[in-house]
C-alpha cells in the first residue's frame, strides 16, 4: 500500500511537471504577434559558421560549449529592423555567451556587424554582465543567476534599444544622430539578422524559446 501511494505520488508530480511544461510552451507559442525561430529539435533556419562541434540540441534548447562559434538565423530573407526578440537563457557558472541583432552571416571571427546583448552572470574575465549592450552601454551587476532560466528581451525601434532581463529594464539606449560605423565593427542601429554565440570551451550556455515580433 505504501509503495502504491509513493508510486501514485510520483505519477502526480510527473503529471504536474508535464502540465507546467506544456503550459509554458503553449504560452510562448501564443504570445500575441510573436513567431518562433527555433523548433526545439533541429537547426532548420539556422547556420553555424565555424567549429560546428561547439553546438548541439538538448531538451529543446541550443547548447553551446566549445571553441568560438556563432549560430546565425537564416530562416527569413527579410532583414529585421524594428522588432521585439525574446530568448530564454540558462548559464553554468563562469560562462560567457551572447545574442546578436542587426548582424549578418560571416564565415569566421567575432561578428563585425550589429550589436551583442551580453550573456554573462559570473564570467570572471569580463566585467560586462548579462543584458549589456556590449561596449556601448554596459551592465556591471548581473540581473540574473546561473543555473536557472531567465528571459532576455530586446526591443529595437528606429534608433532606440531597450534590453530587459526577466521584465526588468537594464539598458535604455538611443543612438546619437552622429553615430558612424567604426573601422572594424559596424556598430550602428540598422537592420539584419540574429546570432547566438559560443564563446569558449569553458562556457556552457543554453538558448531556447527564441521568438520574435516585427514592429515594422
What characteristics describe this protein?
216 residues, Jelly Rolls, 5-stranded antiparallel beta sheet, 13 strands, signal, AL/BT2_dom, mainly beta, hydrolase activity, globular, 8-stranded antiparallel beta sheet, 3-keto-alpha-glucoside-1,2-lyase/3-keto-2-hydroxy-glucal hydratase domain-containing protein, disordered N terminus
What coarse outline follows from CA principal-axis ratios? globular
Domain count: the total is 2
The helix count comes to: 1
Order of helices and strands: HEEEEEEEEEEEEE
Give the class-level CATH name of the largest domain.
Answer: Mainly Beta
CATH architecture of the largest domain: Sandwich
Strand content: 35-45%
The CATH homologous superfamily of the largest domain is called Exo-inulinase, domain 1
Q: What is the typical, i.e. mean, pLDDT?
A: 89
Structural class: mainly beta
- Count of DSSP strands: 13
Radius of gyration: 18 Å
Helix content: 10-25%
Might you state the CATH topology name of the largest domain?
A: Jelly Rolls
Low-confidence spans: pLDDT under 50, at least 5 residues?
1-27
Distance between the termini: 62 Å
User: Main β-sheet, in a few words?
Assistant: 8 strands, antiparallel
GO molecular function, one term: hydrolase activity
Organism: Planctopirus limnophila (strain ATCC 43296 / DSM 3776 / IFAM 1008 / Mu 290) (Planctomyces limnophilus)
Keywords: Signal
Protein name: 3-keto-alpha-glucoside-1,2-lyase/3-keto-2-hydroxy-glucal hydratase domain-containing protein
